[in-house]
Design a protein that fits this description.
- By secondary structure, the chain is of the alpha+beta class.
- It folds into 2 domains: about 100 residues, DnaA, N-terminal domain (GMP Synthetase, Chain A, domain 3); about 30 residues.
- Helix content is about 50%, strand content about 15%.
- It contains 6 helices and 3 strands.
- It has a 3-stranded mixed β-sheet.
- Helix 2 crosses helix 4 and helix 5 runs antiparallel to helix 6.
- The two termini are about 60 Å apart.
- The relative contact order is 0.10.
Length: about 150
């Protein structure tokens, strides 16, 4: 069975995709090295026309990146000068987009209805309560549970 990389290198039409994926991976590694505190909270989306586009997973992270933009740009430039792989990356701005990760909705556990024995016990207790409002609420609850 051929590996994905072999398939991409054999088909000339797919080579630009392989190059784009490689470039994106290098940019993500650059971002992780320059801003490790944001690497788990954001991802590189693109680098075009001197603008590095970052996808932040929350508005708070996006705001923090925007506040630190000048310092991050300096760090990126310093890193690129020292790096052997990323040369000639000339960035003038960082654009941040908020991209909230979707979360799986947790299933609510259905609460079992009380048994008839429990409802009968509650009904006998309701007759012994001295508080009319509490007694009425308890009787309403019992009636509702029996209709189910």
């Amino acid at each position: 069975m051929l590996k994905i990389k072999q398939i991409f290198t054999r088909h000339h039409d797919l080579q630009p995709l392989l190059q784009e994926a490689s470039d994106r991976q290098q940019l993500q590694q650059l971002w992780s090295a320059v801003a490790p505190e944001f690497s788990t909270l954001s991802q590189v989306l693109a680098a075009e026309h001197g603008i590095l586009t970052i996808g932040a997973y929350s508005g708070a992270v996006a705001s923090k990146i925007r506040l630190l933009e000048a310092g991050l740009l300096r760090k990126i430039q310093d890193f690129c000068q020292k790096s052997q792989q990323i040369k000639g990356l000339n960035l003038s701005a960082i654009k941040v987009k908020v991209q909230v990760k979707s979360r799986h909705q947790s299933r609510h556990k259905r609460i079992k209805s009380p048994s008839n024995q429990a409802l009968n016990t509650l009904e006998s207790c309701a007759g012994q309560i001295n508080n009319p409002a509490l007694e009425a609420a308890l009787r309403h609850f019992i009636a509702h549970q029996r209709r189910r």
